[in-house]
Amino acid sequence: YDLRRHGPGRPPAFAARIKHAFNAYLSASLERERIQAHRDEAKALIGVFSEADHPFNLVDEQAQTPARLAERLATGFARRETITKAAALSARQRTQLAKAKRLIPGLLATLTFFFTMITARMQALNLAPAIAQAMLEDLIPALYLEWVAARSDRTMIKAK
Hints:
Elements lengths: L13 H39 L13 H22 L3 H12 L1 H22 L3 H23 L9
């Protein structure tokens, strides 16, 4: 600006313009980081949903009752809805969330069916109580978790 000749009047207030642009940039950057954090948390919650949808807890290997599954899913969906509102996610993402919520009764019914079938098969085997308890508490969860691990796309460290 200083290298050219200009007409009458005051020169532009470059310092004020730069300050305004910088403040707008900072504000936009902070908003972008906030929204990205919400999106990352929403993605992490999807992982929580997929980990919750198993008859046995993938962490402690305990049987997961339908009531416990319903509680975990309700907590996850409540948090996801909060994130959806805070991050102003798209209509498509809100539709996907509503669709996923409609699947909860089916998931609970499947879990109930799974344990009903396990109980029926164990009764049909007519095993000694100690053996039946060992199968229910140790063998069946171990076999299920082994099956899940084999199907997992996550990299797992294999014992040598």
